[in-house]
Design goal:
By secondary structure, the protein is mainly beta. It is 0% helix and 54% strand.
Length: 196
């Protein structure tokens, strides 16, 4: 298959890939590979329809492994945050599907406590993970075309198209308050953020 892979994540001997099948959009979505034999990876994706979704000309988004949970972003219209149980890594089970309100094209995410903060076109989308199949909270943070998000202690740091890096403080109930913006002259695009 001709796949366009958007993101990968791993747990043990299994690699998860968010991919668009360039020949058959109905087979776009989450793929599972057994890499026990690194020279011969095996596609072990279950045939369950919850792994595949039609994406049209759009893309599928980022992945994040957190313990026995795999989180996946979709760029469907509307966009979703999907949560899978990967206790059995070769057989992910869909636990919840959260519709992302007021944003599109989700690109990156970071988990803090029971909340997922998602960088997207239109700002940060916040999902309360303790609620099953709920919609995201109203858009938070800066109204910008965001590319990536990271966290340092209780501060979100996110980047956008252009020359700016944004900073926001996380509040325990999933809300954030804007702290400020730092512009860097000559910086065209920052596509990732790593905080240490």
């Amino acid at each position: 298959n001709a796949l366009t892979v958007w993101d990968v994540a791993a747990k043990g001997n299994y690699v998860y890939a968010q991919a668009k099948d360039n020949n058959d959009n109905t087979k776009s979505g989450l793929y599972v590979f057994d890499v026990s034999d690194g020279s011969n990876p095996q596609n072990v994706t279950p045939s369950d329809e919850s792994f595949h979704f039609t994406v049209g000309d759009a893309a599928v988004g980022a992945l994040l492994v957190d313990g026995n949970n795999l989180f996946a972003l979709t760029w469907d219209n509307p966009a979703y945050l999907l949560r899978y149980d990967i206790t059995a890594p070769h057989n992910p089970v869909l636990l919840s599907k959260h519709r992302l309100q007021t944003v599109s094209t989700p690109r990156d995410m970071v988990k803090i406590g029971n909340y997922m903060y998602i960088a997207a076109c239109g700002g940060i989308s916040v999902v309360n993970l303790s609620e099953t199949n709920s919609d995201s909270l109203p858009r938070a943070g800066y109204d910008a075309n965001l590319l990536s998000v990271g966290v340092y202690q209780d501060t979100l740091v996110y980047t956008a198209f252009g020359d700016s890096i944004y900073f926001s403080k996380v509040i325990g109930d999933g809300t954030i308050t804007q702290l400020g913006t730092r512009q860097f002259s000559g910086m065209e695009r920052t596509t990732d953020v790593t905080i240490s």
